[in-house]
Design a protein that fits this description.
The protein is of the alpha+beta class. The protein is built from 4 helices and 8 strands; from the N terminus they run αβαββαββαβββ.
């Protein structure tokens, strides 16, 4: 009986390690796939063509909530590390849902990666005919020496512009980074509840 008990514990421990290893492998596969998409987008733009993105009606608040949950799960981040402030009403924008999800995912990944163990603040706000999502961290930051280019952040800028929006970045070395995604307001936004009313979403 003792032998079986030890064997069962060993098998259970091995299964736990297998799941952990598989999760890490899956995360790396997803990163490689995202990098491949970035390279593909860069190639399309450098060849003088526009990205083929749809202009659907996308509810942005829920999309960001899903992105926060996903980023925390994949990064194994502690609860309460990310604070998301959003309007009580819906926030519909025009854009490609998959492209928006990838931009949001990358911004959250970068914040959690370069500010490990530190608070990350995500805010959804309304501006005239637009909706903004800002991701702010207290990480290492860096000095900006020109426009955002390259395969990483540059691809996010390209996707935002292809949907009629913008992506702006401010950072100070040693004092963190703030990235703001601005998207065009969609026809189904309910801004009646936006007069300062926000629902704080902490994960």
């Amino acid at each position: 009986v003792l032998f079986r008990s030890k064997a069962a514990k060993s098998a259970s421990s091995t299964r736990g390690l297998d799941h952990e290893l598989l999760d890490k492998i899956q995360a790396q596969v997803e990163l490689l796939a995202e990098f491949a998409r970035d390279l593909s987008d860069a190639g399309i733009v450098l060849s003088g063509n526009a990205l083929a993105l749809s202009t659907d009606d996308v509810e942005l608040v829920e999309l960001v909530r899903l992105g926060v949950d996903d980023a925390l799960h994949r990064r194994g981040a502690a609860e309460g590390l990310v604070t998301f402030e959003a309007p009580a009403a819906s926030a519909h924008v025009r854009g490609d849902r998959d492209a928006l999800a990838r931009v949001i995912r990358r911004l959250l990944d970068n914040a959690l990666k370069f500010a490990p163990g530190r608070a990350c603040r995500v805010r959804c706000e309304r501006a005239p005919r637009t909706v903004t999502i800002s991701v702010e961290d207290d990480g290492i930051g860096f000095e900006l020496d020109g426009p955002i280019t390259g395969v990483g952040l540059g691809s996010l800028v390209t996707r935002a512009r292809a949907m009629g929006g913008t992506l702006d970045l401010s950072s100070v070395e040693g004092h963190g980074t703030t990235v703001t995604l601005t998207a065009v307001e969609g026809p189904n936004s309910d801004f009646a509840g936006w007069s300062g009313a926000c629902s704080n979403y902490k994960q």
